[in-house]
Design brief:
The complex is a heterodimer. Chain A is of the alpha/beta class. Chain A has 15 helices and 13 strands. Chain A has helices at 2-16, 29-43, 54-62, 77-82, 111-119, 128-131, 154-166, 168-173, 183-186, 195-205, 215-220, 240-247, 284-298, 301-306, 314-327, and strands spanning 19-24, 46-51, 68-71, 85-100, 108-109, 145-149, 190-193, 209-214, 224-225, 227-229, 235-236, 272-280, 310-311. In chain A, the strands form two sheets. In chain A, strands 1, 2, 3, 4, 6, 7, 8, 9, 12 and 13 form a ten-stranded mixed beta sheet that branches. Chain A is elongated, with a radius of gyration of 22 Å. By secondary structure, chain B is mainly alpha-helical. Chain B is 74% helix and 4% strand. Chain B is built from 14 helices and two strands. Chain B has helices at 2-38, 59-71, 82-97, 100-106, 111-114, 124-155, 158-172, 176-195, 202-226, 230-238, 243-272, 275-280, 298-305, 311-343, and strands spanning 48-55, 115-121. In chain B, strands 1-2 form a two-stranded antiparallel sheet. In chain B, helix 6 (124-155) packs antiparallel against helix 11. The chains are: A alpha/beta, B mainly alpha. At the A-B interface, helix 3, helix 4, helix 7, helix 8 and strand 7 of A face strand 1, helix 3, helix 4, helix 8 and helix 13 of B.
Chain lengths: 333, 344
């Protein structure tokens, strides 16, 4: 009797609740985890997501080992068609330039300064291109230590994409990659950290250093963040409001399956990185479960904001929902 | 029964050989595209992941190039091998975007008909980094481990020797990532404070490695020194030898093969250590000109790039691990043959 009852309960639960599995980008892992918790308590549907890196996320969804893949590097419409995949963005992250200069507590970095530091042509902190915009700070005559990621990462991919937009020199000599041979390394002024966490620590423990870190990690580690010059010439502090302002100029479009990196928008904070989800549209049943989870996610922006992510602007969310309808993977009501 | 027992033991012994050769075959299989592409020049080429442009003269050479590329790819390498999809993405992004910079870059498409980009992978810098960090670790660890072992087996009172011995064995059980974090947060900044340079560098990596292998060496050395028969020691003392002389002339020669074995085991671990070193070596593809410069080692390159690589870059990583495999094999076999022959 009891056994029967228990069996009935299990059966009853399984008739309504389901489980989906995802893997990929570690950048979207914290926010996915938070959404998964809320989604489970609301619907008792289970979503599993493991942070294995964008590359693995793409590989695993292509061979259908998982129900959805997370990636910081969007796939081209051509690749998507080949594997019968649909792609949509979930959140946007800000990449900050964190620095550690003893005695300096606010720093403005112009586009020329950022380009010069990355290319290694600006070598000292008291360089006129930096000093020009920081008249009130006493910049030391010390060599700039440039800190970057040592592992292949979506953060590096997005940051080098930003640099490519900013500087044709950068694009032609170094390009957009998940790992780069940094020119500062060849000059012996580069240091690399493993993961955002490694970069944060390296900045903290090396005076006169500067490096790029995801906003959430930079805040967690209490780093000083530079104000960055946007495309419109104004300086933007690394704040969620300025990220959102930039994200509004993201320029996502349905036509190319949201294939767009939004670094360097017309206005607002310029170094932004969207993160994407991949599903198989020909497996509509599973895809609908995935979209119902992310439609829950879109309704819970506060979870993302609290973790330091930028929720998608509402017009982009509307576009994504339209895209779901077009691909026949809109969640069932 | 006797027969079965012998068979079982011989099976367990051959299993190890089978596993080793299976690993070697797998490494070789996946590294093959890179071996074909770069050959032995890989060992002396300091460029890792550098994109170069090769002029393409006529359609015949284009044909050749695509052919060699296709045959030189790992099984699942389709249009999203690392280098291809990256450039593909940028071009497409630029084509689709329509910004001024975008069009400037897609304008470069004209060039791409006359030039073909090719990624070059060479392992010299990680190979040098691996050897240097291992040498630093051994120079630091061997004397300290010997000191600990001598103290524990000959000098310390049993009341002290026991807890210290257990502590040493516990050290060996600490996961390597803990050593990495300790190095990253405390030890690295401390070393750079004293010797200069950035907080993560070759010296820090070597010293952290040294700390990691000390427990292995110390406890194995102590064990083999403890096997010296008391009769030998006592007769030496009876002849008027001092403690130092007994250790030098009686215990060390007796325990020599065990001590060398422990050093070789530790050396193997230092060559292949991944996680801890990845956090403290600096991860920069550059020759260390000073001890305090950041660099990379083979395991670090593998740890940093494995999850996100495909196509030729993955094959190059397998080639690199094959190199590590062969280097460790050579080092250990030479050490073993050389020292054990001398021992007899």
């Amino acid at each position: 009797m009891l056994k029967k009852l228990a069996f009935g309960v299990v059966l009853g639960a399984s008739a309504f609740a389901w489980t989906i599995n995802g893997t990929g980008s570690s950048f979207q892992y914290p926010v996915n985890k938070a959404w998964i918790k809320g989604f489970y308590s609301e619907t008792s549907n289970r979503v599993n997501y493991t942070a294995t890196g964008s590359g693995t996320g793409i590989k695993e969804i292509e061979v259908r080992h998982v129900d959805f893949g997370g990636t910081d590097k969007p796939l081209t419409p051509r690749t998507l068609r080949k594997y019968h995949l649909a792609q949509f963005p979930t959140v946007i992250g800000g990449i900050t330039l964190a620095y550690n200069i003893p005695g300096v507590h606010s720093l403005k970095l112009s586009e020329i300064a950022i380009e010069g530091i990355a290319l290694g042509s600006i070598q000292y902190w008291d360089n006129p291109w930096i000093a020009k915009y920081n008249p009130n700070e006493k910049l030391p005559h010390k060599k700039i230590i440039f800190v970057h990621r040592s592992d292949k990462s979506g953060t590096t991919f997005n940051f080098t994409y930003y640099l490519s937009k900013l500087s044709t020199t950068w694009f032609h000599h170094f390009g957009v990659h998940k790992a780069v041979n940094w020119p500062t390394d060849a000059q012996g002024r580069g240091v690399a950290g493993k993961g955002n966490f490694g970069v944060s620590t390296a900045i903290k423990t090396n005076p006169y250093s500067v490096g790029y870190v995801d906003y959430a990690d930079a805040v967690k580690n209490g780093l000083n963040l530079a104000e960055v010059q946007g495309k419109d010439g104004a300086f933007y502090a690394a704040t969620p409001a300025n990220f959102a302002k930039g994200a509004a100029y993201g320029g996502f479009s349905l036509k190319n399956d949201f294939f767009k990196l939004i670094a360097y928008p017309k206005k607002g904070y310029p170094i932004l990185a969207p993160t994407f989800v991949l599903v198989h549209y020909d497996d509509a049943k599973t895809a609908k479960r995935v979209t119902s989870f992310f439609s829950y996610a879109y309704d819970h922006d506060e979870v993302a904001s609290k973790l330091g992510y930028i929720p998608l602007p509402s017009n982009v969310k509307a576009l994504v929902k339209k895209y779901w309808v077009e691909k026949g993977i809109s969640p069932e009501k | 029964m006797e027969f079965l027992f012998r068979k079982l033991t011989s099976i367990s012994a051959t299993v190890i050989l089978l596993i080793l050769s299976a690993i070697f075959i797998v490494l070789f299989f996946y590294a093959k595209p890179a071996i074909k592409e770069y050959g032995l020049h890989f060992l002396v080429d300091p460029r890792w992941g550098v994109t170069i442009q090769i002029p393409v003269k006529n359609s015949a050479t284009v044909q050749n190039n695509t052919n060699s590329n296709a045959s030189a790819s790992v099984g699942n390498n389709e249009d999203d091998s690392d280098n291809m999809s990256d450039s593909d993405n940028v071009d497409a992004a630029l084509g689709l975007g329509g910004d001024d910079v975008d069009s400037a870059i897609s304008g470069g498409g004209e060039n791409s008909q006359n030039y073909k980009t090719k990624e070059i992978y060479g392992g010299l810098i990680p190979i040098v980094g691996t050897i240097l960090s291992t040498i630093i670790a051994m120079l630091f660890a061997v004397p300290i481990a010997m000191g600990i072992a001598i103290f524990l087996s000959e000098i310390a009172m049993p009341m002290l020797a026991k807890p210290v011995g257990i502590a040493i064995e516990l050290l060996a059980a600490i996961p390597s990532i803990i050593y990495g974090m300790w190095g990253l947060f405390y030890f690295g900044p401390f070393i750079s404070h004293i010797f200069g340079g950035p907080s993560v560098n070759l010296l820090v990596a070597g010293l952290v490695l040294g700390v990691m292998i000390i427990p292995f060496m110390a406890s194995l050395t102590r064990d083999s020194m403890n096997t010296t028969p008391d009769v030998l020691k006592e007769s030496a003392y009876a002849l008027g030898a001092t403690k130092f002389e007994v250790i030098k002339d009686v215990i060390f020669p007796y325990a020599k093969s065990g001590i060398i074995g422990s050093i070789i085991l530790a050396l193997g671990r230092a060559l292949g250590e991944t996680m801890a070193v990845a956090f403290v070596i600096g991860g920069v593809f550059n020759y260390p000109k000073k001890l305090t410069d950041p660099t990379v080692s083979i395991p670090v390159v593998l740890a940093n790039s494995f999850a996100e690589s495909s196509g030729m870059s993955l094959a190059a990583l397998f080639y690199l691990s094959l190199v590590l495999f062969v280097v460790s094999f050579i080092v250990i076999v030479t050490a073993k043959f050389y020292f054990l022959r001398n021992n007899k």
